[in-house]
Amino acid sequence: MANQAQRTEMPDITATSRFKPRGEPVIHGINTIGLWSLYIKEVRRFLKVQTQTIWGPAVSTLLFLVIFDVALGRAGREVLGVPFPTFIAPGLIVMAMMQNAFANASFSLLAGKIQGTIIDLLMPPLSVGELMAGIVAAGITRAVMVGAAMTVAVYFYPDVTLTVSHLWAIVWFSLMGSAMLSLFGLLTSIWAEKFDHNAAITTLIVAPLALLSGTFYTIDNLSGVFQAISRANPFFYVISGFRYGFIGESDIGEGSRAVVQAAIGLGVFNLILAVIVYLVLKSGWKIKS
Question: Which chain regions cross the lipid bilayer (predicted)?
């Protein structure tokens, strides 16, 4: 009877325990600490080699400006009412941003798969959306840093005048372009099994789309077929919209209404691309298998 009384008087340990019952999630909502940690990890990764990831791309892109200015910008040539160097400078800036956003996002999961450290990204208590958001946000951050470095370099280049005409266009198209390539880079990182696959996508898809997007010319100079192909290229709208933010003119269409429509279209396109990347990442294809 005494033992029975002691058992009845003992407190219920499970009732007073600080731990959640088995199977009940501990983290509710967004894991902000985990998301922030992943983001900082990705940012620190490319900042450790910032000479290669930030300043190197800015210098190489600046060389494009020098070469094309010398080759095509002589005799006071003007495009869309501005000197040729001023015309191509915004396109070069946002093109460098997009390419570096892709390079950053396409490295994360691929390096983990090759080095066998992919478990470091899959084991932490991060949802699929949080994992995707951290990698994409880091890619956008690198793109913004490259864009800032490139803008400073171009600002002191002779014959280039960068004046803000429409700030919203500069911010929106730069972020949409960086987000688009970060998402595409993450999708490439999921698919690729070695660095050669990543390099093939960069060489055969990203670089041609960037160079054939109206960076160095207006698509009005193209024939009907090639002009239609250019209008199917999302890079064209990013570059032309970003340029519109500086010079107030674009070859997207007549007036600001066409630019606004392009801005909305890019937002919808990125939303669809984000859903596709989310579903592929959630399936575990080529990651968990």
Answer: 54-75, 87-110, 131-157, 169-192, 199-219, 258-281
> Three-state secondary structure along the chain?
CHHHHHHHHCCCHHHHCCCCCCCCCCCCCCCHHHHHHHHHHHHHHHHCCHHHHHHHHHHHHHHHHHHHHHHHCCCCCEECCEEHHHHHHHHHHHHHHHHHHHHHHHHHHHHHHHHCCCHHHHCCCCCHHHHHHHHHHHHHHHHHHHHHHHHHHHHCCCCCCCCCCCHHHHHHHHHHHHHHHHHHHHHHHHHCCCHHHHHHHHHHHHHHHHHCCCCCCCHHHCCHHHHHHHHCCHHHHHHHHHHHHHHCCCCCCCHHHHHHHHHHHHHHHHHHHHHHHHHHHHHCCCCCC
Q: What are the pLDDT digits (tens) for 11-44?
A: 554 444 565 666 555 666 788 999 999 999 999 9
What does the pLDDT read at residue 1? 46
Q: What residue has token string 């199917």?
A: 232
Cβ 101 vs Cβ 178: under 8 Å: yes
Residue 273: CB atoms within 10 Å: 18
Which residues on neighbouring strands pair with residue 79, listed in sequence order?
A: 82
User: How many Cα neighbours within 13 Å face the side chain of 90?
Assistant: 33
Angle between helices 56-72 and 128-155 (to 10 degrees): 50
Compute φ and ψ for 193, nearest 5 degrees.
-115, -15
Among 112-121, 182-191, 278-287, which range has the highest average pLDDT? Answer: 182-191
- Helices of type H across 192-289: 195-201, 207-211, 224-231, 234-247, 255-283
Q: What is the pTM for the complete model shown?
A: 0.87
